[in-house]
Design a protein that fits this description.
This protein is of the alpha/beta class and 199 residues long. It is built from six helices and seven strands; from the N terminus they run H-E-E-H-E-H-E-E-H-E-E-H-H. A five-stranded parallel sheet has the order 4-3-5-6-7.
Amino acid sequence: MTTEEYLIPLDNYLKVGLHIGTKFKTKYMEPFIYKIRNDGLAVMNVKKIDERIATVSKFISQYEPKDILVVCRRENGWKSVKLFSKMTGIKVIAGRYRPGMLTNSRLDNFSETKLLIVVDPWPDKNAVLDAVKVGVPVIALCDTNNEANFLDLMVPCNNKGKKSLGLLFWVLTKEYLKNRGQIKADEELSLTMDDFAAE
C-alpha cells in the first residue's frame, strides 16, 4: 500500500503502536484484528483504523465545537484531549465525568451536547449511559478488549498508550480543522504530533 492511501504516513501509526491491542479480545473487535502476536497481544489492521479515523473526522466535522463533548477518564489521554480542545474549541472533560451532566439540566455543570466522544467506553461508561438516555450519538475509541454496547461508531486503536492517543487526537484535530475550512493543509497546524503525546 502506498502512503497516499493513509491520512498520515503508515510509519507514524506503527511507531506509536496505535495498532497494538491487548491479550483480550471481544467479539465486537474481532473484525479489526489482523493477527495475534507470539506474546499473545492482538494486532489490529492499520488500514481499518485509518479508514475509521477518516470516517469519524468527517462525521464530527458536521458539528459545531460547542455541540461536541469529549470525555477521558484515562490519565494517559488528558494532555491529548486538552490540546484537542484548545485547537478546536470542543469541550473536554479530562478526569472524572459526573453522572447527570448530560441528563440533568438543574446541575451547574449541565452540558447540552449533540455528540459524545469517549476515549475508552469502559472507564467512561457513565458518560456513555447518559448520552444513550438523551439520544446523543456516541463515538468511542476501542481497544481489542472493549465491548461495543451503546456505541454508534467506534475507532479501533490502542486507547491506553500516551503516544497512540497523542497521535490519534493530533490527526483528529487537523482533519476536523481541515474539514471545517479553518486550515487548508497539514502544515498549517501549529502543533506537531509530538506536542500531543504526553511526556
